[in-house]
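Re: beginner question about structure tokens

> Can someone show what the tokenized structure looks like for a real chain? I only ever see the sequence side.

Sure, here's an example I had lying around. Input first:
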Amino acid sequence: MSLQPACAARGLTKIYHGHDQSSQVVAVDDVTVEIARGSFTAVMGPSGSGKSTLMHCMAGLDRASSGDAWVGDSNLSQLSEKRVTRVRRDKVGFVFQAFNLLPTLTAQQNITLPLELAGRRVNREHFDSLVDSLGLRDRLTHRPSQLSGGQQQRVAIARALVTTPDVLFADEPTGALDSRTGTALLEYLRRASNERGQTIIMVTHDPNAAAYADRALVLLDGRIVEDIDQPTASAMLTTLGSLGAA
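And the corresponding structure tokens:
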């Protein structure tokens, strides 16, 4: 018997309407996909292809217009906003390109904030493991303004993982980083998937970043047009080039 997927979309559609309601944009168009537990999936496509919208709907940050978005055994499309918030709090980690750290809190306070908001105690062993594996031990008392971009992004990663989420969603996590720092972050994400069984879904525009994943989904006009196992940078560049995205 196969394991239940970490998350899934089934017939997922997201439509944005114009001010006059007569015009509409189909950002995600009848997408069905399953994400296996412990997998590292890259989501790519041209600008406006719907990749970030798909991820936001699957993560419970946005409501789909129709279809179903599942996280584990929870169908977000059938839950109230309050219950979706609870699922997102307990089962989902999210990393934004812009870090979104609170400037008045130290790195440690930013990392543990989701636990405090949920009324949960810090698992010190898990916290220490995250901090040490991300190289943040000597930065815990620093505020975001005292950290480099790479250090801020690593704090954001730790904050997303401290709750031990079922799925980590990352939206262009290396987009604001230099190549060396971005590579170090991607290597950490790959280890988190391979060694710790963390499920990761990463939106990226970079074929080199996608090559760290074990699967790549390519979107065009809101639909998945390619599903590639063990993607390489050259293969992704060729695929994107054929879509006019490279």
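Each token stands for a local structural state, so reading them left to right follows the chain. The chain is about 35% helix and 25% strand.
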